[in-house]
Write a structure and sequence with these properties.
39% of the residues lie in helices and 17% in strands. It has 241 residues and is of the alpha/beta class. The chain has a single domain, classed as TIM Barrel (Alpha-Beta Barrel), CATH 3.20.20. It has an eight-stranded parallel β-barrel with strand order 1-2-3-4-5-6-7-8, surrounded by six helices. It is globular, with a radius of gyration of 16 Å. Bound molecules: geranylgeranyl diphosphate, SN-glycerol-1-phosphate and magnesium ion. Magnesium ion binds next to loops. InterPro entries: GGGP/HepGP_synthase_I, GGGP/HepGP_synthase_sf, GGGP_HepGP_synthase, GGGP_synth.
Length: 241
């Protein structure tokens, strides 16, 4: 049953903002998941994303199984690679790195993924993934061999995001990169949002409630946070339901 994307659309219609907690399988041990997910459940988080730019084979499968034992929130794969596909999750962001020009990350990995996806019930959500420079070299740059878009070239970022929509993608993800020094600017978020009809995800370097609210008021429909929770779980105390 395909309901994850529909639910995102319904939330947007109701003017509800969404928050995804990103769990990187390489940074969490199974033993810590129950406690961590307990905090996620008590917070305003609406989704759990699972993925990393470099993840060991089979790690994701075991981790998602454990996460699902402890939460009713939808678990969405945010994969850096085909090896991160597991049937245990509810959906997958079928990312195409449209800020880059590496065919492997535009179409190649996707063709590779299809035989695996056929064997799952995952809801596949085509997502235009746009990497924007944010103060330091990111893992995504390293893994994909692509350059991020210049934050000063807003017109080009807007056109790139819009191209994703025109190609039929259902979501656009503006990515500053894991642990970005500065989050994507309000101006970029708001200019991109104004040009789109589809939902907008924003992530990378968001570390406080104030920054979450700034992203929402600029136009983000869903904010993703990973590093800030990895570094200090007390951040959840600011985000209690
Ligand atoms: C189509 C399939 C199944 C796979 C390829 C999907 C594509 C095109 C991915 C784009 C490039 C990429 C490597 C994205 C990684 C996205 C991700 C999970 C980022 C979060 O991981 P980080 O937090 O950056 O990881 P580290 O903290 O380990 O650096
Ligand atoms: O880890 P952080 O900096 O929160 O970034 C989240 C996500 O956008 C990374 O792919
Ligand atoms: Mg990370």
């Amino acid at each position: 049953m395909e309901y994850i994307f529909k639910d995102i659309m319904s939330s947007i219609c109701l003017q509800e903002k969404l928050l995804a907690v990103l769990i990187d399988p390489d940074k969490f041990s199974i033993e810590n998941i129950e406690g961590f997910i307990g905090k996620v459940n008590r917070s305003i988080a609406t989704h759990v994303f699972v993925g990393g730019s470099t993840v060991g084979v089979n790690t994701t499968d075991v981790l998602v199984e454990e996460i699902k034992k402890h939460t009713k929130l939808p678990v969405i794969l945010f994969p850096g690679d085909v090896t991160q596909i597991t049937d245990k999750a509810n959906a997958i962001l079928f990312l195409s790195l449209i800020s880059g020009r590496n065919p492997e990350y535009l179409i190649g990995k996707h063709v590779e993924a299809v035989s695996k996806l056929r064997k799952t019930n995952l809801e596949v959500i085509p997502t235009g993934y746009v990497l924007i420079e944010s103060g330091k070299k990111t893992a995504v740059e390293r893994v994909t061999g692509t350059s991020p878009m210049l934050r000063s070239n807003i017109e080009y970022i807007v056109d790139t995001a819009k191209t994703g929509e025109l190609l039929g993608m259902k979501l656009i993800y503006l990515e500053g990169g894991s642990g970005a020094i500065y989050p994507i600017s309000k101006e970029i978020v708001s200019r991109v949002k104004k040009s789109l009809q589809i939902p907008l995800i924003v992530g990378g370097g968001i570390r406080s409630k104030k920054e979450i609210e700034e992203a929402y008021s600029a136009g983000a429909d869903l904010v993703v946070i990973g590093t800030a929770f990895e570094e200090d779980e007390s951040f959840f105390d600011d985000l209690i339901k």
